[in-house]
């Protein structure tokens, strides 16, 4: 089974706010956690509800994001999506930390 990770973007960084992201990156991994596919989507508008819908329809299992409202955090975790929030810095560093099993919330990746 492929694992999908979604990262809201602001340039090359994790978007500081989940609800204001205009662009997202979806990374699909195989069983061995080797990167297999990367796609960037530009959203038509900034909306936490639209982003939650995208996460569920794309079958995303993990979200790596900056600030997220408690309501959306609880909704996604209720839907069995693992959410790493309060992540700041370069999205590649965040993804590498996740892939190595070292990603923790409230981690500034410089």
What is the terminal separation in angstroms? 32 Å
Helix content: 25-40%
> How much of the polypeptide forms β-strand, as a percent range?
25-35%
| Number of individual domains | 1
Structural class: alpha/beta
Overall mean confidence score, pLDDT: 90
Oligomeric category:
single chain
Main β-sheet, in a few words?
Answer: 6 strands, mixed
Overview of this protein structure:
By secondary structure, this protein is of the alpha/beta class. It has a single domain (3-99), classed as 2-Layer Sandwich (Nucleotidyltransferase, domain 5). 25% of the residues lie in helices and 28% in strands. The protein has helices at residues 48-57, 70-78, 91-99, and strands at residues 3-10, 13-14, 23-29, 35-42, 62-64, 82-84. Strands 1, 2, 3, 4, 5 and 6 form a 6-stranded mixed β-sheet that branches. It is globular, with a radius of gyration of 12 Å. The model has no long low-confidence stretch (mean pLDDT 90).
Q: What is the gist of this entry?
A:
The chain has helices spanning 48-57, 70-78, 91-99, and strands at 3-10, 13-14, 23-29, 35-42, 62-64, 82-84.
């Amino acid at each position: 089974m492929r694992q999908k990770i979604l990262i809201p973007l602001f340039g090359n960084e994790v978007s500081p706010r989940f609800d204001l992201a205009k662009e997202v990156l979806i990374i699909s991994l195989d069983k061995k956690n080797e990167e297999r596919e990367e796609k960037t989507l530009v959203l038509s508008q900034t909306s936490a509800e639209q982003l939650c819908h995208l996460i569920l329809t794309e079958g995303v299992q993990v979200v790596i994001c900056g600030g997220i409202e408690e309501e959306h955090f609880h909704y996604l975790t209720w839907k069995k999506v693992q959410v790493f929030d309060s992540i700041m810095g370069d999205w590649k560093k965040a993804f590498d930390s996740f892939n190595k099993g070292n990603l923790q919330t409230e981690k500034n990746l410089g």
